[in-house]
UniProtKB/TrEMBL annotation:
Domain HTH tetR-type intervals: 8-68
Protein name: TetR family transcriptional regulator
Family matches, as SUPFAM superfamilies: Homeodomain-like, Tetracyclin repressor-like, C-terminal domain
Residue ranges for the DNA-binding region feature of this UniProt entry: 31-50
Protein keywords: DNA-binding, Repressor, Transcription, Transcription regulation
Alphabetized GO MF terms: DNA-binding transcription factor activity; transcription cis-regulatory region binding
Superkingdom of this protein's organism: Bacteria
């Protein structure tokens, strides 16, 4: 009787290996040959599970995104308005080793997505969802009377996205100037500004 292969499990293994390679050496280290070798496959065998490298990179990004989204959901809980903005941002900031690692995968994905329309669209969809959530929390904060800033909502959303993306980049490129304490201080200063007219 032939051995039953769990293709989903094999895909998860390939993604885990790819993530590990990206963490260790960036996207350049995650060649198809290296991924296959680390996963215990012949080089051409990866095609049975993923059509190409971009599909593996996409799967790796989606895994990191799912882990981050889980943390964001926990960080927000039942809160709304400013509390939800703070919870969401704290969960997305690279405040510990696990989230710094997720940021490394994200940075590699951005590099690939910059020249790949399909991957770029995946990130654009994620960004649109993120922006919608921020818009909802800002609207709730205004409705609750906690957000008094006259700065347009769209600008506030842009600033929060830039704060989070910038912190993820700096935690990898200039960690001395992007400590968890500094990241929290920047976030708190931003949120405090929202409470002033």
């Amino acid at each position: 009787m032939p051995k039953v292969i769990d293709h989903d499990e094999r895909r998860r293994d390939i993604i885990a290996v790819t993530r590990s390679l990206i963490i260790q050496g960036g996207i350049e280290a995650a060649t198809m040959r290296e991924i296959a070798a680390e996963a215990g496959f012949a080089n051409g065998a990866l095609k049975h599970y993923f059509p190409g490298k971009d599909d593996i990179i996409q799967g790796t990004y989606e895994l990191s995104l799912a882990q981050m989204s889980e943390g964001v959901s926990e960080g927000i809980g039942d809160s709304r308005g400013i509390a939800a903005l703070r919870g969401m941002s704290l969960a997305a900031l690279p405040l510990d080793a696990e989230r710094i690692t997720a940021g490394r995968v994200l940075l590699s994905f951005w590099e690939r997505a910059a020249s790949n329309e399909h991957l770029h669209e995946i990130y654009a969809q994620h960004l649109a969802t993120w922006r919608q959530a921020l818009a909802q929390f800002i609207a709730e904060g205004r409705e609750d009377g906690d957000i008094l800033s006259e700065t347009p909502d769209e600008q506030l959303i842009d600033e929060l996205v830039a704060l989070n993306v910038g912190a993820n980049l700096l935690s990898l490129m200039d960690p001395e100037h992007s400590t968890p304490e500094l990241q929290k201080a920047h976030l708190d200063a931003f949120l405090e500004r929202l409470t002033r007219p």
